[in-house]
Backbone:
């Protein structure tokens, strides 16, 4: 019984319930209409707390002002550059709850480059400053009309990545 | 990497991630009462857990059942605590009691499946283009594979402990179950008060 108590007390200091510090995004690139669509799922409690710290605004009512805060945050932390010809300006088209604690944000942007897609540079720092050790951001990149999806993982160690389409 | 492989890897990482040990701890605590020679029973036990969590994972991802995630996060460590208490009061996995262990694994697997679903739904809803079934199947395969890795490592450590260092199996069970119970107790307190 003493050994049992020892094991209990030893291990009681290391309690961790599975952490879910993650965003998942999908980028759909339509080269014919020069449009880029981005869908991102956020765990709302983490996102809300982080934006409260950064902007002193509670985004929970999800009204116009709160959506502007969300758009500003994503524009600064989810940066897509197409053929190194410039950053795609993403504008929020909708933000809605798909689960009690999962906020899905849809953004759209126009491709400035006139050349055929050769390279995408992507910076994804969503919530990385809030949870530098735990946060993981997954991005699925899809060309409209193509079956193939490229999947990238972003973390504090690797928050910028490039994909070559040549 | 295609989406199917991506979800397999997510399944493996989710269950073997050392930063989130709740599911791993349950599998380990569940196996603690078994000796090396009872490896077949261990496999049946893990399969019972698999059937349980696969069922609720599918039902939750398909939106057929929906349970408050805060409640699930409290129930998961409770399953670990109850398993560890059961292990301590069960001297060894006696034949007559084995079926009860399987029922326990199956029933508690149902709760853990609901825990997996939160992760998978958040990851794929509106993101995956290959529907629900394919990611669900791939994620489940990944979880099973990860579970296999955990059990294999556990058996290896059990071999070293009981055969090479000659720790008595009863003591082994007390250490593992006690540790599992201790961690679970802290998780329960955390989930209620934090």
Residues:
């Amino acid at each position: 019984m003493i050994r049992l108590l020892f094991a209990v007390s030893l291990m009681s200091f290391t309690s961790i319930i599975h952490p879910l510090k993650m965003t998942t995004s999908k980028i759909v690139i339509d080269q014919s209409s020069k449009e880029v669509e981005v869908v991102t799922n956020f765990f709302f409690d983490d996102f809300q707390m982080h934006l409260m710290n950064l902007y002193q605004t509670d985004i929970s009512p999800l009204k116009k002002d709160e959506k502007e805060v969300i758009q500003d945050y994503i524009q600064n932390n989810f940066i897509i550059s197409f053929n190194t010809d410039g950053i795609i300006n993403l504008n929020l088209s909708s933000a809605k709850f798909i689960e009690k604690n999962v906020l899905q944000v849809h953004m759209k942007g126009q491709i400035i480059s006139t050349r055929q897609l050769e390279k995408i540079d992507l910076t994804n720092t969503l919530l990385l400053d809030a949870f530098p050790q735990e946060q993981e951001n997954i991005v699925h990149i899809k060309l409209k009309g193509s079956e193939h999806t490229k999947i990238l993982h972003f973390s504090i160690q690797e928050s910028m990545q490039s994909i070559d389409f040549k | 990497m295609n989406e199917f492989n991506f979800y397999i890897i997510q399944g493996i990482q989710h269950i073997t991630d050392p930063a989130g040990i709740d599911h791993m701890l349950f599998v380990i605590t569940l196996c603690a009462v078994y000796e090396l020679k009872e490896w077949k029973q261990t496999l049946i036990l893990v399969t019972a857990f698999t059937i349980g969590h696969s069922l609720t994972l599918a039902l939750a991802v398909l939106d057929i059942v929906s349970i408050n995630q805060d409640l699930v996060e409290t129930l998961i460590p409770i399953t670990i605590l109850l398993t560890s208490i059961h292990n301590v009061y069960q001297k060894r996995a006696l034949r007559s009691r084995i079926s009860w262990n399987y029922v326990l694994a199956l029933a508690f697997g149902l709760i853990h499946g609901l825990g997996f679903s939160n992760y998978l739904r958040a990851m794929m809803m509106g993101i995956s283009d290959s529907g629900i079934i394919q990611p669900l199947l791939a994620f489940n395969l990944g979880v099973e594979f990860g579970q296999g890795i955990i059990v294999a490592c556990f058996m290896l450590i059990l071999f070293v402990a009981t055969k090479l260092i000659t720790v008595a199996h009863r003591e082994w069970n007390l250490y593992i179950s006690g540790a599992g119970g201790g961690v679970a107790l802290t998780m329960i307190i955390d989930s209620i008060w934090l």
